Amino acid sequence: VESREAWFDLLLDHKLVVAMFSAKWCGPCKLLKPIVAHLSQVPSLSRLKFVAVDGDELPTVTQEAGVSAYPTIKLYADCREQESVVGGDVQKLVRILETAAASGYSR
After folding, report:
1. Do the Cβ atoms of 65 and 8 come closer than 8 Å?
2. Mean pLDDT, the chain, as a whole number?
3. pLDDT value at position 33?
4. What is the pLDDT of residue 103?
5. Three-state DSSP class for 97?
6. Are strands 49-54 and 80-86 parallel, antiparallel or unpaired?
7. Are residues 105 and 75 in contact, defined by beta-carbon separation less than 8 angstroms?
8. 32 sits in which H/E element
9. Which of 6, 71, 76, 89 could cysteine-pair with 17, CB 3.0–4.6 Å?
10. Which runs of E-coded beta strand occur in 62-106?
11. DSSP label at 107?
């Protein structure tokens, strides 16, 4: 995501958005990034739109999203945050994504 406006457009254009908030200097982010990239290619998760948000490049978006640590991955459904994973809990992340993809995340 390149700008605050692009962020809001993305949320409006896609029902389910998975946003990874990170920073270039963040070691755990570097470890998690290829895992998230792989998940974005899994056919059963194709309903989800995966995006990256660099906290240093878009501090306003990061702050408005309530991110206080990196990496943070947030799931948005219909422009609203539904779930959040802070750190590298891959099992929790996969469980959340599979549920969202299967159900369309209707609460």
Report:
1. no
2. 93
3. 95
4. 83
5. helix
6. unpaired
7. yes
8. helix 27-39
9. 76
10. 72-77, 80-86
11. -
* Residue 79 bears catalytic tag: no
Q: d(Cα 83, Cα 100) in Å, to the nearest integer? A: 10
Compute the Cα dihedral for 40, 80, 90, 67 and give only its sign.
Answer: positive
Residue 73: closest CA among 40, 107, 105: 40
From the candidates 16, 26, 51, 65, give the one annotated as an active-site residue.
26
* Terminal-residue alpha carbon distance, the chain: 27
Pair of tokens at residue 101: 């993809």
User: How much is the average pLDDT of 16-45?
Assistant: 95
Strand order in the sheet with 72-77: 49-54, 16-22, 72-77, 80-86
The pTM is what?
0.92
Tokens at residue 33, please? 């990034």
CA distances from 63 to 21, 40, 54, 107 (A): 10, 24, 12, 25
- Single out the catalytic residue among 29, 32, 73, 93: 29
pLDDT, one tens digit per residue, over 60-92 is 999 999 999 999 999 999 999 999 999 989 999
